[in-house]
Amino acid sequence: QDSGRGEPKTLWGSNDPRPPAAGPGQPSPQQRTETLGFYESDRGRKKKRSLSDLSLLRFISAELTRGYFLEHNEAKYTERRERVYTCMRIPKELEKLMFFGIFLCLDAFLYVFTLLPLRVFLAMFRFITLPCYGLRDRRLLQPAQVCDILKGVILVICYFMMHYVDYSMMYHLIRGQSVIKLYIIYNMLEVADRLISSFGQDILDALYWTATEPKERKRAHIGVIPHFLMAVLYVFLHAILIMVQATTLNVAFNSHNKSLLTIMMSNNFVEIKGSVFKKFEKNNLFQMSNSDIKERFTNYVLLLIVCLRNMEQFSWNPDHLWVLFPDVCMVVASEIAVDIVKHAFITKFNDITADVYSEYRASLAFDLVSSRQKNAYTDYSDSVSRRMGFIPLPLAVLLIRVVTSSIKVQGVLAYVCVVLFYCGLISLKVLNSIVLLGKSCQYVKEAKMEEKLFNPVLTATPGKPAGKQQGTFKSTQGISTDENGSTSVTNQPVHQKENMPSLLVTSNSDQFLTTPDGEEKDISQDSSELKHRSAKKDLLEIDRFTICGNRID
Length: 553
Hints:
The chain is mainly alpha-helical.
């Protein structure tokens, strides 16, 4: 309405009800109406056409004929393919490491039966005949000879203590338990074995150092005898623990329906659940690999003990061995399958290549080669114990106890067979050591770690930074060269002077593989800086037993 008059107006802005006449060059109202109707009809046809495009046949046709190009995301699919190839390479690379590691454990295990008695005999002979030659040195015995005598005495004492443990009574006591109880007992024994192994090597190392520590220093220990008693108690208890494991496995083998054996084998697959879905770095995976090597070798010895006990009960009938053969194969196959699946998925989830197992093998080989040089700071069997958590003394005590109780030696011919068998063990030990040393030198050369054998890293004594040591120290550790120019890695250690600062010659295999890649750490930093080092430890520093690859600090 108009604000002045209040009269309504038409749509074309005037009071006249008739539409205004079209001006020159403008369409008439009728033409406007026709044009508007044409546009509305065209819009309706387009709407109908768009609805027809959404028909079911056209949708199916589009789904069947649409295309895409994978090369637009080439990096992503190449990475997926490499992961598949890595999983396919894991079994081969892992078994190479396991094969080499098992023979390292076998070498350390055979050392207890073959060379250790001979070394103890030579050390005792030197001790007895020492007055005939006079005191040329301030030491009555060399540190290595003292450690050998301690190992031999511990072995003999624990062997006689094991005679008071009745294997038959233990077998029937375990056999009377229910399947669920035995399953729980077996799991508890596995955990207890890992825990006691981690503490046992520390006990033995403390005994060796207490017995060989220079007497000029201030006494900071409780004495050799208390340490010796603790070592004997540890070896005895660990041997009983392994005996209970072997007895439980023997009961599972002799059960009628094999249900217990099946449950025990399925327990290995539970290990996959506890390991696969955790974050692993290269150092953690290396420690897990060492733990798997130790576990597999220990299971092989347990299977040998079970077979010996069963063969004794059936009067050494060869036919019964074929009865045990399928169960033995099932145990071994389950161990191998679990290890392969576990490592394959760990490397996949943590983006680790299969070449890392070659680095692990080279690191173990470096330890073997380093232990054969001058000024070696540890015996190789002890190095294997620290690296893998494998302690051969309790297992050797149990095996000797089982063999002596299962096999009766009577008559001259039987003793001749024992002597021949011992000579065969020595030959096997020497042959195994030679082959391992040759392969280790090859692996070290392939990994380009030879220069680290000639240039060892020196770490200062506790409380003194390496960069503030007084004087210089020329390392004599290295591969010696004889007159013909050939190298030797089996020379005896050279005793250092007492007034020289005590330095620890550490292996350089820790620098060979660090995490993350390409990150080098300063070795000569102060002790205050060492306290704040990153949690990503070097390989050599990972010498404690772990559970599921997580280091116990």
